[in-house]
From TrEMBL:
<comment type="similarity">
    <text>Belongs to the polysaccharide synthase family.</text>
</comment>
<feature type="transmembrane region" description="Helical">
    <location>
        <begin position="210"/>
        <end position="233"/>
    </location>
</feature>
<feature type="transmembrane region" description="Helical">
    <location>
        <begin position="12"/>
        <end position="35"/>
    </location>
</feature>
<keyword id="KW-1003">Cell membrane</keyword>
<protein>
    <submittedName>
        <fullName>Lipopolysaccharide biosynthesis protein</fullName>
    </submittedName>
</protein>
<dbReference type="Pfam" id="PF13440">
    <property type="entry name" value="Polysacc_synt_3"/>
</dbReference>
<feature type="transmembrane region" description="Helical">
    <location>
        <begin position="318"/>
        <end position="338"/>
    </location>
</feature>
<feature type="transmembrane region" description="Helical">
    <location>
        <begin position="115"/>
        <end position="135"/>
    </location>
</feature>
<feature type="transmembrane region" description="Helical">
    <location>
        <begin position="41"/>
        <end position="58"/>
    </location>
</feature>
<keyword id="KW-0472">Membrane</keyword>
<feature type="transmembrane region" description="Helical">
    <location>
        <begin position="290"/>
        <end position="312"/>
    </location>
</feature>
<dbReference type="InterPro" id="IPR050833">
    <property type="entry name" value="Poly_Biosynth_Transport"/>
</dbReference>
<feature type="transmembrane region" description="Helical">
    <location>
        <begin position="441"/>
        <end position="462"/>
    </location>
</feature>
<feature type="transmembrane region" description="Helical">
    <location>
        <begin position="79"/>
        <end position="103"/>
    </location>
</feature>
<feature type="transmembrane region" description="Helical">
    <location>
        <begin position="414"/>
        <end position="435"/>
    </location>
</feature>
<feature type="transmembrane region" description="Helical">
    <location>
        <begin position="359"/>
        <end position="375"/>
    </location>
</feature>
<feature type="transmembrane region" description="Helical">
    <location>
        <begin position="381"/>
        <end position="402"/>
    </location>
</feature>
Length: 479
């Protein structure tokens, strides 16, 4: 199978995975939000940073090293497997022990039990991390989809049952534990690889030398990505954090979904052509332009219809979250560009640059948070937008050192799409305001039709638009 066909097949199956699996999860969380309310979601938001840090420590960046390794052996896989298991047990013990301290910090005793149950997920995911890495490396996304689908359906059913019957925050905890448990079991059954009693110091050193910089970068990113949760949870109410957490999750969903679909396929694909710099640069440029062509109107359009959208799917109880969502959508619009710039560093094995730029970006975030904290919770939300734009510049600068795609060239490729998407969003919001006395579904439907038609129409007129590039890419035989 050609690389192009393999890539597009992967994108199709990853899209199916996203549409059915993550889409079902998204709908499940909407229903749970209506049933259990902002406060319980705020409790999950309080521990999000500790769960995310635990997952990052458990993996230690080693599975990313496996994916980029050209011909890994049984010694590579088994060594990484046993390191992951050992790390998961250590992380579980540390967070389990620290649960009372965390609960006392936020002032919610119930967090002790929530943390101690939830952190079992570290051990569960560690048992199947290598199997998942192998499937990703081999671009077997069809098999991954077939594993994710039943896991999510069963886990979501458990969450919905518990949420409907009044279990509150525990419905979320048990839903995710069920999903990860079933997924890990299916990955073991589906994978032809099984660990052997092999531990190679040389292999560990090789993967660690690449992975530890990704680990440190991941820790920095995780901590600072969740710093807003910590500050809002500590100095404001659990309900306010619930509004913020749901807004962040809703704004992340379309952006992270697109990035996940394309990124999970293109990282191993770009790794395969890492020695052909001219081809890699050409593919990367197309990737950036087409991704932004999709995500910019999606995020700005969602922000334009946010009020009737929230009222329709969540209810009046969640109306204070609308403004949070609209602001955060501006930051998440850039998420795919961040991710693909960072992928270039990983493809070239430059985890040292990866770590360096994370330190720079987090220094910017620290200053922004200190300043923004003086302006209440909205100041913190706007700070995330500022840091997202600042981080984009840093990511572009370092990626441009490795490929012939400078910052001015990247900005030139993005600015036309951004301008058209902004015009589209204005038209959509105007439609919502004009139809404010009509049913919410009608407001959303009319605004969406206006948005799609105006966006595609303006892009079609501009011949240099990514729309034409996407059409040509589909017609061509090569990437």
């Amino acid at each position: 199978m050609s690389l192009k066909k393999q890539t597009f097949t992967g994108i199709i199956w990853t899209f199916a995975d996203t549409f059915f699996v993550r889409g079902f999860s998204f709908v499940t969380m909407i229903l749970l939000a209506r049933w259990i309310g902002p406060t319980d979601f705020g409790l999950i938001g309080m521990i999000a940073v500790f769960i995310a840090v635990g997952k990052t420590l458990t993996d230690s960046g080693l599975t990313s090293s496996l994916i980029r390794t050209k011909k890994p052996s049984q010694a590579d896989f088994s060594t990484v497997f046993f390191v992951n298991i050992a790390m998961s047990l250590i992380v579980f013990f540390v967070i389990f022990t620290a649960a009372p301290v965390i609960a006392d910090f936020f002032g919610y005793p119930i967090l002790i039990d929530i943390i101690r149950v939830y952190c079992v997920v570290f051990i569960i995911t560690a048992f199947s991390a290598v199997q998942l890495a192998i499937l990703n490396k081999d671009m077997k996304f069809k098999k991954i989809t077939k594993i994710n689908l039943p896991s999510t359906l069963i886990g979501s059913a458990v969450g919905l049952y518990l949420g409907f019957n009044g279990y509150g925050v525990w419905s979320i905890v048990w839903m995710f534990l069920t999903i990860e448990s079933i997924k890990a079991s299916l990955l073991w059954l589906a994978s032809s690889w099984k660990p052997k009693a092999i531990f190679s110091k040389a292999k560990f050193k090789y993967h660690y030398n690449f992975g530890y910089k990704l680990l440190l970068s991941g820790l920095l990113d995780t901590v600072f990505k969740n710093i807003y949760n910590v500050l809002i949870g500590k100095f404001f109410s659990a309900q306010t954090l619930g509004y913020y957490e749901r807004s962040k999750q809703f704004s992340e969903y379309p952006s992270a979904t697109l990035t996940g679909v394309i990124g999970s396929v293109t990282y191993p694909m770009l790794s395969k052509i890492q020695d052909d710099s001219e081809r890699l640069e050409r593919v990367y440029r197309k990737l950036i332009r087409i991704s932004f062509f999709v995500i910019a109107p999606l995020m700005l359009g969602a922000a334009a219809v946010a009020e009737p959208l929230f009222l329709l799917i969540l209810g009046k109880e969640w109306l204070p979250a609308v403004l949070f969502f609209q602001i955060l959508s501006l930051a998440m619009m850039l998420y795919p560009i961040h991710a693909y710039n960072l992928n270039i560093l990983k493809v070239y094995g430059r985890s040292d640059l990866f770590l360096k730029l994370e330190i720079i970006k987090k220094s910017i975030t620290t200053i922004a948070v200190i300043v923004a904290f003086q302006f209440d919770v909205l100041g913190l939300v706007w700070a995330s937008v500022f840091t997202s734009f600042a981080a984009l510049g840093v990511n572009m600068f370092y990626a441009s050192k490795l490929i012939k795609y400078s910052i001015p060239e990247q900005m030139k490729d993005l600015v036309v799409t951004l301008f058209i998407a902004l015009l589209m969003a204005v038209a959509m919001n105007t439609a919502v305001q004009v139809l404010s006395d009509t049913a919410r579904l009608i407001q959303i439907a009319v605004a969406t039709i206006i948005g799609i038609s105006s966006y595609l129409g303006m892009n079609y007129v501009i011949k240099s638009s990514p729309l034409h590039q996407a059409i040509l890419l589909l017609k061509s035989r090569n990437l």
